[in-house]
Specification:
By secondary structure, the chain is an alpha/beta fold. Helix content is 35%, strand content 21%. The chain has a single domain, classed as Spore Coat Polysaccharide Biosynthesis Protein SpsA, Chain A, CATH 3.90.550.10.
Length: 254
């Protein structure tokens, strides 16, 4: 199934470093917020992978970078009813119930990474607030990830620095099709593959994927507003900015 999306892209590659992000209809509202923060401090090219966006946001992406359609139906991701009852309960007890709608996009992440046109790439989740220059992330000759504090063998896949051609990413894509019913999300699957393969991973400094759970950090270059609570913070920030803007129009300074 979808063999062409399980292997590295080979056409129209670029001999430069770049960023890749992905979005579907449920996440596309984050794109302008993510872009505004990114372009304040960084100038590397960005590729936008379409997991199922609206026509409006597809055009928005095309105006700002390379637009990459990912024509893979959501049906490959196991539904709730197809998950073993024990795993179902474990996942909901540990993570709540809001993650289910995210699984379709999560398991497309390795497929998106394989479509990167860049020699060295950094994948960044859209709920990551970029607060400064992140060029040092490209100084990686394989793959770099942040190891979670709460679990010694889990790597967070919100920020991934990687080089083109890694067999690890292809294995991750293969197993996203074949084993997603056994894992809550893409990062648990990737962590298991790394563990089984004993694959050497460069560990990122926390400033490049700072969890909102750790509190504020003025040194963080990428602040990860993960989960529903984090996205609510982003929504509140956007609404507050909008109200301030409207107020300035009604009450212009002399």
């Amino acid at each position: 199934m979808y063999e062409e999306y399980r292997r590295w892209r080979t056409e129209n590659l670029r001999a430069c470093d770049g960023i890749i992000v992905g979005s579907d209809l449920t996440q596309e509202w984050l794109l302008p917020w993510w872009w505004d923060n990114y372009q304040k401090h960084n100038g590397h090219p960005v590729a936008f992978v379409d997991f199922g966006m609206s026509s409006e946001k597809k055009e928005w992406c095309k105006e700002r970078g390379e637009f990459i359609p990912l024509q893979v139906a959501d049906i490959f991701v196991a539904e709730k009813e197809e998950i073993d009852a024990k795993l179902f309960s474990e996942w909901e007890n540990q993570f709540g119930k809001n993650f289910w709608n995210c699984r379709n996009a999560w398991f497309k992440k390795p497929l998106a990474c394989l479509q990167s046109p860049f020699k060295r790439t950094v994948w960044i989740d859209l709920d990551c607030e970029i607060r400064g220059p992140i060029g040092e992330l490209f100084e990686c000759d394989s793959i770099a990830l942040l190891k979670e504090r709460w679990d010694a063998w889990i790597y967070n896949s919100g920020v991934i620095a990687f080089t083109h051609g890694l067999k690890l990413i292809e294995t991750w894509a293969d197993q996203s099709f074949e084993k997603n019913q056994l894992f809550r999300g893409d990062q648990e699957l990737l962590s298991q593959i790394i563990r089984e393969m004993k694959y050497p991973v460069k560990e990122l400094d926390e400033k490049y994927n700072w969890s909102r759970c750790y509190g504020d950090n003025t040194e963080a270059l990428i602040y990860h507003w993960h989960g529903e609570l984090g996205r609510n913070v982003i929504r509140y920030s956007l609404m507050s900015s909008s109200r301030c803007f409207l107020s300035s129009l009604k009450n212009p300074q002399p």
